[in-house]
């Protein structure tokens, strides 16, 4: 019997290398590859968009054409061939399902495999989910319950049609189309995503969650998320991502904008598990994402991310602390193994007085991977009494990986207080030996040590997510020591 | 309990153990003393399964099994415990979480159900009292920020929690003041039973005032060169190790 558990565990871990690598066999409506104005018009017409939306796209496309791909990141990869990507792919008959019963059985099976059990969520209150597969949002749960409170939680395309005034008012206000190369590209070709609006004084009673899934080959995923918390509102938002195992590199270029009005609070948590490529660095997702939030007076935005997937990650969830007494937080665990590369961190832009920011970044590198933290703390001249605390820790496993830290501080107000701490450590053979001597297997030991190291960040995640994240960490680092 | 026969071992081609024999039966406590560099800690590490050492000859039978064939974790699960000379820190992992994980892996290995939260807490309470360990330390990260004495007490606490058949205490007395020494010894004595055994590695006779050994062995140059009762420890304390070296030299002539 004891043999069973041992072998079982071993098998489990072997099989769990990347358990989301399957493809759903579902017919899709995919437009031809390439990128030009016609394609953009086609996307817009497929989505039956109003003219203002098309104009927005075309302007963004014009801007994008004048831009060049950024090269300052500490990552090396073959640049995506933008002409060879299909910019729109949707599961066929993808009109929004009216009820759960209408959902395609294949789709239901996919969700089940991914651990999103909408059926269960239909019964239990807990998390409202928007499921985005390839280019479109497939299903959103709990809509009616939320709408009783005036909360809008729907796909981005639906918001464009149903709530154009909100979309027009806020879209692009935090991340303008010209912000950077990938944000511009996204603004031109984005296909769907999530939209969320919490009205004044409302505390959203459940976690809102979007699950992103790339299914089709040869496509890119360009989703857009816009979360608006009106005055005094509160929302906790979760985001999860997976993709099938393919030899090609697929591009994921998302834009997420958060708007926290006076006294509002947004908690945004991500567990990113895009396909990371195989052991030899073949395939995997390029995850080039722009995420930023703006804080009005006394509001708070908190980003928590657990990044285990993607071949290349380039991502800096940031806060513009515009209002006085506003607070920005960034908690991050980034794991790289095999040939993965991550360049991730945050920007905290202090504009208002008495603004406060906290950065806790935990990098874990294994295999032949490269893991960089890149952060900017910027105190503007009117930001009296601004405060920042940053802590950037790196954990190395083995001696063929790299950890790098690029902290930037720009301070234009002498009353600011900025603290920065950084450490680099290795999972020691001694720690492993100590754990094993107490009867722990190597897998369990690594998982304990790594979870201990990441504790401050994992504590920020909602309970269910935290459990998932812990498992993910263990799987991502499987076999990386000794 | 454990029978070590003609054990030879080396690290980086340097021979450290050169034919060590030791037989420990259930219910016994054996003390191993010896000058610096005689191989005491190496013996502890090899028995626990540290990979840096290569066993070149000999065999070790532990509770009817070939110990050297078992992995480090399986040795622990079979009931071998090493109290480290330098306990390791594991930041962010609470002592209780660490012990619960360890205890449950050991139970799973033995085909037992995981311990219930209630039973576990009761066990923590009982065993931490045994070594007078502040309950706050039980919930703090493993050894992180512990004083030298607290780390050693924590080792004995872990030992009490895991209830091993054979405990090896590697210089547990080093760096302890007299009070801590008494507490640690007290803990070990309370755990003493006809079913388990202990090997106590020490430099000084002091600890043996509190933990009375059944046998005392002198390890010198990779071998046990002299064995006796507890009075041997007193003799060593008084006369040092030189007389043994001389005795060996004259025997060799």
Spatial order of strands in the largest sheet of chain B: 6-9-10-3-11-12
Round the mean pLDDT of chain B to the nearest integer and report it. 91
- Strand coverage percent of chain B: 25-35%
Sheet with most strands of chain A: 11 strands, mixed
Can you count the helices of chain A?
A: 13
The overall strand count of chain A is 23
Oligomer: heterodimer
Strand count, sense and closure of the main sheet of chain B?
6 strands, mixed
Shape of chain A: globular
Quick overview:
The complex is a heterodimer of chains A (482) and B (253). Chain A is an alpha/beta fold and 482 residues long. Chain A contains 13 helices and 23 strands.
Description:
Chain A starts with a helix and ends in a 6-residue tail after the last helix. Chain A is globular and about 65 Å long. Chain A is α/β, with parallel strands linked by helices and 482 residues long. Residues 1-16 and 119-126 of chain A have low confidence and may be disordered. Chain A contains 13 helices and 23 strands. The longest helix of chain A is centred in the N-terminal third of the chain and has 15 residues, at 51-65. In chain A, the strands form 3 sheets. In chain A, strands 5, 6, 8, 10, 11, 13, 15, 16, 18, 20 and 22 form an 11-stranded mixed β-sheet that branches. In chain A, strands 4-3-7-9-12-14-17-19-21-23 form a 10-stranded mixed β-sheet. In chain A, strands 1-2 form a two-stranded antiparallel ribbon. Chain B has 253 residues and is α/β, with parallel strands linked by helices. Helices cover 41% and strands 28% of the residues of chain B. Chain B contains 10 helices and 12 strands. In chain B, the strands form 3 sheets. Chain B has a 6-stranded mixed β-sheet, with helices on both faces. In chain B, helix 4 crosses helix 6 (148-162) and helix 6 packs parallel to helix 7. The radius of gyration of chain B is 18 Å and the shape is globular. Chain B starts with a strand and ends with a helix. The mean pLDDT of chain B is 91. The chains are: A alpha/beta (482), B alpha/beta (253). Chains A and B meet through helix 10 and helix 11 of A and helix 2, strand 7 and helix 3 of B.
């Amino acid at each position: 019997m004891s043999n069973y558990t041992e072998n079982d565990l071993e098998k489990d871990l072997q099989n769990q290398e990347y358990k989301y690598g399957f493809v759903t066999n579902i017919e899709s409506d995919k437009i031809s590859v390439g990128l030009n104005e016609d394609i953009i018009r086609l996307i817009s017409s497929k989505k039956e968009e109003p003219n203002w939306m098309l104009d927005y796209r075309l302007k963004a496309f014009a801007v994008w054409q004048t831009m060049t791909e950024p090269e300052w990141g500490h990552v090396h990869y073959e640049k995506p061939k933008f002409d060879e990507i299909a910019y729109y792919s949707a599961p066929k008959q993808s009109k929004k399902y009216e009820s759960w019963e209408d959902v395609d059985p294949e789709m239901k099976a996919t969700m089940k495999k991914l651990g999103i059990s909408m059926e269960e969520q239909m019964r239990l209150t807990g998390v409202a989910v928007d499921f985005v597969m390839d280019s479109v949002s497939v299903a959103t749960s709990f809509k009616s319950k939320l709408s009783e409170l005036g909360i809008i939680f729907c796909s981005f395309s639906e918001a464009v049609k149903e709530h154009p005034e909100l979309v027009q008012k806020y879209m692009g206000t935090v991340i303008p189309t010209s912000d950077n190369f990938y944000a511009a590209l996204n603004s031109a070709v984005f296909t769907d995503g999530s939209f969320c609006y919490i009205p004044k004084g409302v505390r959203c009673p459940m976690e809102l969650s979007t699950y992103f899934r790339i299914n089709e080959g040869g496509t890119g995923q360009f989703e857009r998320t816009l979360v608006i918390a009106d005055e005094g509102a509160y929302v906790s938002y979760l985001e999860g991502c997976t993709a099938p195992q393919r030899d090609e590199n697929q591009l994921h270029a998302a834009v997420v904008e958060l708007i926290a009005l006076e006294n509002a609070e947004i908690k945004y948590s991500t567990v990113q598990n895009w396909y990371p490529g195989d052991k030899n660095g073949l395939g995997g997702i390029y995850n080039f994402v722009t995420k930023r939030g703006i804080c009005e007076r006394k509001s708070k935005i908190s980003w928590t991310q657990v990044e285990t997937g993607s071949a290349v990650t380039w991502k800096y969830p940031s806060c513009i602390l515009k209002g006085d007494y506003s607070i920005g937080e960034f908690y991050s665990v980034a794991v790289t193994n095999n040939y993965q590369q991550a360049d991730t961190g945050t920007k905290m832009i202090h504009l208002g007085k008495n603004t406060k920011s906290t950065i806790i970044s935990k990098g874990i590198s294994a295999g032949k991977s490269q893991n960089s933290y890149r952060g900017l703390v910027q105190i503007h001249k009117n930001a009296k009494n601004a405060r920042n605390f940053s802590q950037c820790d790196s954990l190395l496993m083995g001696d063929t990986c790299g950890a790098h830290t690029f902290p930037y501080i720009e301070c234009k107000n002498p009353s600011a207080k900025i603290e920065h701490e950084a450490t680099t450590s290795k999972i020691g053979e001694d720690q492993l030996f100590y754990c094993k001597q107490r009867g722990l297997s190597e897998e369990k030991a690594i998982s304990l040590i790594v979870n201990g190291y990441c504790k401050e960040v994992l504590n920020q995640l909602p309970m269910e997510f935290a459990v998932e994240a812990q498992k993910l960490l263990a799987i991502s680092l499987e076999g990386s020591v000794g | 309990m454990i029978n070590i026969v003609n054990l030879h071992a080396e690290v980086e081609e340097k021979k450290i153990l050169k034919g060590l024999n030791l037989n420990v039966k259930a219910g016994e406590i054996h003390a191993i003393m010896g000058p610096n560099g005689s191989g005491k800690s190496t013996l502890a590490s090899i028995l626990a399964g540290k990979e840096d050492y290569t066993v070149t000859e000999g065999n070790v039978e532990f509770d009817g099994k070939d110990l050297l064939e078992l992995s480090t974790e399986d040795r622990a699960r079979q009931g071998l415990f090493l109290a480290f000379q330098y306990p390791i820190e594991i930041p962010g992992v609470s002592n209780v979480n660490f012990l619960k994980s360890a205890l449950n892996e050991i139970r799973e290995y033995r085909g037992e159900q995981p311990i219930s939260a209630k039973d576990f807490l009761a066990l923590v309470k009982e065993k931490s009292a045994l070594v007078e360990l502040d309950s706050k330390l039980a919930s703090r990260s493993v050894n992180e920020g512990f004083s030298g004495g607290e780390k050693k007490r924590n080792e004995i606490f872990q030992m009490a929690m895991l209830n091993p058949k054979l405990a090896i205490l590697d210089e547990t007395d080093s760096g302890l003041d007299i009070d801590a020494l008494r507490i640690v010894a007290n803990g070990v004595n309370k755990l003493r039973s006809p079913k388990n055994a202990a090997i106590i590695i020490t430099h000084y006779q002091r600890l043996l005032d509190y933990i009375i050994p059944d046998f005392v062995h002198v390890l010198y140059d990779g071998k046990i060169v002299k064995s006796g009762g507890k009075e041997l420890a007193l003799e060593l304390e008084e006369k040092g190790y030189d007389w043994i070296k001389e005795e060996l030299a004259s025997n060799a002539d």
